[in-house]
Write a structure and sequence with these properties.
Blueprint (H helix, E strand, L loop, with lengths): L15 H12 L1 H23 L4 H4 L2 H80 L4 H16 L5 E6 L2 E7 L2 E2 L4 E3 L2 H10 L4
Helix pairs in contact: 1-2, 1-4, 2-4, 4-5
Length: 208
């Protein structure tokens, strides 16, 4: 394209700079060194061939040697700077990945602690709510009146255990008479006790 200017000799800036700067700026030291050597060799070969320079001494003249020397010098320097930045970027990314992993671990532990704190808070709240209730029923159960004790027992089971229905029956001969139900004194309901049921109640001595 420029027969009178082989290797773009005399054109400033020389188009070979595009290759050198792009490779060094994009890929770092090795690419910068390789591209600068390749461009220098190509430049020297074309110039020596077109201008019939037969000796190395001819190529060392400033007019011919300037561009190859600058290609190599600038390619190496730019490549080293870019390589240093790439190495720093790689280390920064490694540190960032490690920090993200630590953040995930800390977040997971924080979530676990939040769950534990919530559970403890619920227990404290439940304990705070339960203690006054137990104190109230302790006073009722401390009564010397059996009727009040039976009523308090049914009320306690309904409120604490959340039972839907709790009844206390009193035995009179062969009949079970309703005494209290769900925290209230009730009378009237009754059912006969057969031998099997009487024996079961006496043997096991537990609520049925």
């Amino acid at each position: 394209a420029f027969p009178a200017q082989p290797g773009f000799l005399g054109i400033e800036p020389n188009p070979y700079w595009i290759v050198v700067l792009l490779m060094a700026g994009r890929y770092g030291f090795r690419a910068g060194l390789f591209s600068s050597l390749l461009c220098s060799a190509t430049f020297c070969t074309i110039v020596a061939t077109k201008l019939n320079l037969l000796t190395i001494r001819d190529l060392t003249l400033f007019a011919y040697a300037k561009n190859p020397v600058l290609f190599i010098t600038v390619g190496v320097i730019v490549g080293m700077l870019v390589q240093r930045l790439r190495d720093r970027q790689a280390k920064t990314e490694e540190r960032l990945a490690a920090l993200r992993q630590q953040h995930r671990e800390i977040q997971q532990k924080q979530d676990e602690l939040s769950d534990v704190n919530e559970e403890l808070a619920n227990r404290v709240i439940n304990a705070t709510d339960t203690l006054p209730i137990l104190y109230k029923y302790a006073k009722k159960l401390n009564s010397l009146d059996h009727d009040e004790v039976y009523v308090a027992l049914t009320e306690l089971v309904v409120e604490i255990i959340k039972a839907e229905r709790v009844s206390v029956y009193a035995f009179h001969d062969d009949i079970a008479l309703l005494h209290s139900r769900n925290g209230h004194r009730e009378e009237g309901a009754a059912f006969p006790l057969n031998d099997y049921l009487r024996q079961k109640l006496l043997d096991e001595r537990r609520p049925v």
